[in-house]
Amino acid sequence: MPSRFIHWRALASGRQSSEDRAEVFEREDSLVVVVADGAGGMRGGARASAALVETVQAVAHDAAQDVHDAELWAALFKTTDATFAAKAVGETTGVVVVAGPHGLTGVSVGDSEACVVTAKSVDDLTRRKERPRLGSGRAVPVIFRRRHLEGILLIATDGLFKYASLGRIAATVHAGEVARAAERLVALVQFPSGRFQDDVAIVVVAPG
């Protein structure tokens, strides 16, 4: 059964190689979204964010795994944190959100964020996030759930949320066609020169 959601992705960087990652995997009638921000200024940031995406992809494509089980993702994040720390892979933030027929399920570590934007409000799904990143050996995954996706789901790294308020982000999402929202959000944090203060990775999901 095809997913009942549609999605768009945008990546931008002022550097030759970005440490941010964002991917969307389809699983029957659901989407599994992962966003990761490798720790800048630390060795292995890009490797850590890429490794997290690969780990999430493996679970998303494993029919034996229940991707709607929040505890599954929390356990995966704890294992990943310990593995990255033991092998000195590097550090990364991580947000996984599963959008399915029974609502939203997710887990977060670090300062990447997820929210649901409507014309009247912003529901900050990751407001209880813990700062220690995956690979620090101190990560504390925080679970969130919602019964329905009532609005536009936005998952992004701090390259967006650090440089724009939630109010401006919400207004930008609703400033035109949702299909162009990710592009508008990238432009929101881009200097007139075309440069960026930080890497940015964005995924926008809407009901189909």
Overall description:
The protein is of the alpha+beta class and 208 residues long. The chain has a single domain, classed as PPM-type phosphatase domain (Phosphatase 2c, domain 1). 26% of the residues lie in helices and 31% in strands. It contains five helices and ten strands. It has helices spanning 45-60, 70-87, 158-161, 166-173, 181-188, and strands at residues 5-12, 20-27, 30-37, 94-100, 103-109, 113-117, 122-124, 142-146, 152-156, 200-207. A five-stranded antiparallel β-sheet has the order 1-10-9-6-7. Strand 4 and strand 5 (103-109) form a beta hairpin. The longest helix is centred in the middle third of the chain and has 18 residues, at 70-87. The mean pLDDT is 94.
Return the domain count: 1
Q: Give the termini distance in whole angstroms.
A: 13 Å
Taking the sheet with the most strands, its summary is: 5 strands, antiparallel
Mind telling me the CATH class?
Alpha Beta
Defining key terms:
208 residues; alpha+beta; Phosphatase 2c, domain 1; five-stranded antiparallel beta sheet; 26% helix; 31% strand
Any chance you could write out the topology, listing elements then pairs?
Blueprint: E1 5-12, E2 20-27, E3 30-37, H1 45-60, H2 70-87, E4 94-100, E5 103-109, E6 113-117, E7 122-124, E8 142-146, E9 152-156, H3 158-161, H4 166-173, H5 181-188, E10 200-207
Antiparallel strand pairs: 1-10, 2-3, 3-4, 4-5, 5-8, 6-7, 6-9, 9-10
